[in-house]
TrEMBL record:
Family stated for the protein in its record: Belongs to the histidinol dehydrogenase family.
Residues at which NAD(+) binds: 121, 182, 205
Source taxonomy: Eukaryota, Fungi, Dikarya, Ascomycota, Pezizomycotina
Function: Catalyzes the sequential NAD-dependent oxidations of L-histidinol to L-histidinaldehyde and then to L-histidine.
Reaction(s) this enzyme catalyzes, per UniProt: L-histidinol + 2 NAD(+) + H2O = L-histidine + 2 NADH + 3 H(+)
SUPFAM superfamilies the UniProt entry points to: ALDH-like
Species the sequence originates in: Penicillium atrosanguineum
Reported cofactor(s): Zn(2+)
Name of the featured protein: Histidinol dehydrogenase
Pathway(s) this gene product operates in, as recorded in its UniProt entry: Amino-acid biosynthesis; L-histidine biosynthesis; L-histidine from 5-phospho-alpha-D-ribose 1-diphosphate: step 9/9
GO molecular function, one term: NAD binding
Keywords for the protein's UniProt record, in alphabetical order: Amino-acid biosynthesis, Histidine biosynthesis, Metal-binding, NAD, Oxidoreductase, Zinc
Tree of life domain: Eukaryota
GO cellular-component term (any): cytosol
Chain positions recorded as substrate binding sites: 229, 251, 254, 320, 353, 408, 413
């Protein structure tokens, strides 16, 4: 049995005005592809009221900006980046190059090569997301990426100094104060003053996400498709409704389209959580955003047992899944579809977002069914190589290749094999 104490409000969810985002984005991309810096500047003036002599910050600019940042913030940035670096380097160490000899003289190998150039987009609209600098730039550097171009928009016509500090300490090679589709397009196609990148990572609004989607494959690789932040909490009868409510709202404040879902085996916990959410919204400074998200997309689902809760949670396949039960590690065995798990009441999604060290760029909108989030491996190209040094084995492979290729009617492929069978084993062929 499933009891929904609260569910999404379809009427409210559909009340927002409709914008043809793909068409708008395509127009901007095409314009920048045709006109380069001139169009980048025009869109920056239009969307951000920002048109400096140079969008790129010089080293002197960076030094002056960082000098304006309070020392405590700088120290915190460095501490968080130490956490992110430690985890990312451990991930990198887990990815091995190898070579094996499958038969005498037949060598197969694998190498993991960093992408040559990466673009990192650091959002700055509603909130300056310093943490995205750690997650995108620093992780790329841990993977060995030689050059990272980083873009972040101005906020209310000003340079976001804290974000610039985070980008610099993360290892960005070039920092641009440039936002939106114009930043993504400029990095992807290249302009007179910005070198084209091979890959773009980082979250953003619907227009940034659409720009990445349209440019993917055509111009660049991307980390993953991005959507609104999601949180799902699985809680048992021992969970504290205040903690549950606080953690739900922590993600609902991301935007008015951020779903927050509780699945619990306790009707009491469900009802008390709703009461706590309503109480906390009266005092939360970001209630104007979080309240809209909760009203439109909040859900509380009561189930008979935790096995059912885990099953439903897997169907949602949400970005962040928090486990507030007496045995939170059960979720590691019971669940498979999530961007990241947060186990136990001492852990919260906000730790992952801001400081604990794992990456916060995660799959949304059900993408957790087939992919994980951003990690060191996303910045690596896993390539293979092969070498045959034994004449006998080359001839035997030639015979096998000939038969396998002709079974698929690939005569040209077959003859490459025939040539080795003829050269090394003396086989006779009509065409040779």
């Amino acid at each position: 049995m499933i009891l929904k104490l609260k569910q999404q409000n379809p009427a409210s969810a559909g009340s927002a005005p409709v914008t043809d985002t793909p068409t708008v984005v395509r127009g901007v991309i095409d314009d920048i592809r045709a006109n380069g810096d001139q169009s980048v500047r025009a869109y920056s003036e239009k969307f951000d009221k920002w048109s400096p002599a140079s969008f790129r910050l010089s080293q002197d600019d960076i030094n002056n900006i960082i000098s304006s940042v309070p020392q405590q913030i700088l120290d915190d940035i460095k501490q968080v980046q130490e956490n992110v670096r430690a985890f990312a380097m451990a991930q990198r160490a887990s990815i091995k190059d190898f070579e094996m000899e499958i038969r005498p003289g037949v060598h197969l190998g694998q190498k993991n090569i960093p992408i040559n150039s990466v673009g990192a987009y650091i959002p700055g609209g509603r909130y300056p997301l310093l943490a995205s600098s750690h997650m995108t730039i620093l992780t790329a550097k841990c993977a060995g990426v030689p050059h990272v171009t980083a873009c972040t928009p101005p906020i209310a016509g000003k340079i976001p100094a804290n974000t610039v500090a985070a980008m610099h300490y993360a290892g960005a090679d070039d920092i641009y104060i440039l936002g939106g589709v114009q930043a993504v397009a400029a990095m992807a196609v290249g302009t007179e003053t910005m070198k084209k990148v091979d890959f773009i990572a980082g979250p953003g609004n619907a227009f940034v996400a659409e720009a990445k989607r349209q440019l993917f494959g055509e111009e660049i690789g991307i980390d993953l498709p991005a959507g609104p932040t999601e949180i799902l909490i699985v809680a048992d009868e021992h969970a504290d409704p205040f903690t549950v409510a606080t953690d739900l709202l922590s993600q609902a404040e991301h935007g008015p389209d951020s779903p927050a879902v509780l699945i619990t085996n306790s009707q009491s916990v469900g009802k008390k959580t709703i009461d706590e959410v309503n109480r906390l919204l009266e005092i939360l400074p970001t209630a104007d955003v979080a309240g809209v998200s909760w009203d439109r997309l909040g859900e509380v689902i009561v189930v008979e047992n935790l096995d059912e809760a885990y099953e439903i949670a897997d169907e949602y396949a949400y970005e962040h899944v928090q486990i507030l039960t007496q045995k939170p590690r059960e979720a590691l065995e019971k669940m498979s579809n999530y961007g990241a798990l947060f186990l136990g009441e001492k852990t919260c999604v906000s730790y992952g977002d801001k400081c604990i060290g794992t990456n916060h760029v995660l799959p949304t909108r059900g993408a957790a069914r087939y992919t994980g989030g951003l990690w060191v491996g996303k910045y690596l190209k896993t390539v293979t190589y092969q070498e045959v040094t034994s004449p006998q084995e080359s001839g035997e492979l030639g015979r096998l290749c000939g038969r396998a290729a002709r079974a698929e009617n690939f005569e040209g492929h077959a003859r490459s094999g025939d040539a080795r069978a003829h050269q090394y084993l003396g086989d006779k062929f009509d065409w040779i």
